Amino acid sequence: MTDFSDYELIKLIREQDDKQAFQLLYNRYWSKLFNLALLKIHNQDEVSDIIQNLFVAIWIKRKELNINNNVDLYLYRSLKNRIINFYKRKYLTDDKIDQLSKTMSGKTESEAENICAYKEIELVINREIASMPNKMKQVYLLSREERLSSKNIADMLSLSDQTVRNQISKAIKRIKLTLEKYNVVNN
Amino acid sequence: MRYDKNYIAGIIIKNEHDACSSEELLILEKWYQSLDDNTQQLDAPAIQDLVKNKIWSEITSKIDAKENEAVSAKVVPLHTKRNLFFFARIAAVLILIVGGYTAYNWQTGAKQTDTIKYISKVNTTGKPMKIILPDKSLIWLETKSSISYPDHFTKNRVVFMDSGKAFFNIAHDASKPFIVESTNGLKATVLGTAFVLEKKSGEHLFKISVFRGKVEVSDNSKKYATLTKNQGVNVNFYTKAAALLAVDSVEMTKWFVAKVALDNVTLHDVAISIKETLGYNVKFSSASLASKPCSITYNETDNVEDILLLLDKIYHTSHSISDSTIKINDQ
Question: Complex ipTM, two decimals?
């Protein structure tokens, strides 16, 4: 099996739940992914967590894996998303700590709670999602928060795949328009 | 270029909703590229292998946990003890076996009702790492050292040491001997004591030094020594030759900080410190006792019983320990 191509391994994982193929894929890529993440995150424990979660997600969602020949590209993209998400969480946590330390150092509550760019963006997006028609909201949240594929959402809600794609596309347009309307330019 | 964290967080949130402008996407990409720090490098190949196996072991454990959630109602009991016995017998190469054991069970799809998860720690922090075991025994693991232990102990308390140096402060439990097993089958068996186990890189020697109590050093073929305080032994695991040594207990703990000094606090504060440093929950018989003023200095390398006896003597209290809870009463 060591001679198998990446694509053949993915096929075995997806279609036959082949755990040996999964381990081979891990052995093949862990070092490249680990080093790339370490370059960006600079902390081995955090990087280990990210690599673990990436491979756990691949196994859990193996039936939905829609990868053709570019397995490496898929892995690098997934890793990049996870690294960006790591920094989002880190920046938001840092900001909370900053606000807390401002409050504790005697600044007034309003000074300490300066609305940050990201908070405004989050607020506007959440309001827009809340105002969407129920079906659109349901489809959009399943695609963003649960990270389900359009096919999965379609099966779950007894809709056609195309309807789900249309709903997601309409939801994104609404969010973009609202952000423009509120002129949320975070600079 | 320095990027404003709030600004980048805002773009990331927009990107999650596919709502970034092309300019924002470009900024996001430039920020991402700016994260690179080429000074970050992985450790030596041996450590890399440990990291690789540790991550794989975690991946299989997490997947098992997720899949077991779904099938727990259908699980066929398979007695864990037999697996553990088998595991202990073949424990020749610590991390590989730990990883391999997990992988084997995972690959063959074996299910267990009482799953023991092995936790592997590879200290790459550059400073000593403190670990509190499920039985409240403490380990200080020197940098570039590695150890594995179960998430809970069953009949025996067995941990596996692969390389480097560690100080063990073992919680006393007469019914469960504590065994530290090295990759080469050398075992240090104790009931409640403190000692250092060291395998120097590139040498075929294990050094065991006793800080307190009694330690029996053996492998499957022979017993090398029974050591007491300030005694040590070097064991060559190729020739099986052992040489007894006199060791200095001060030297054994010089490489990590374990002193806790609490001045002008309350007994409640001491309880918080004990929870943080030794892992025990502390309960008081009354609120007035908890608020009693107190000053105390102790070492985490001390036996917890000794620390409590000291408290009893100074503050006229009595205590009892049950599992991980200490109860302190007015005398």
Answer: 0.79
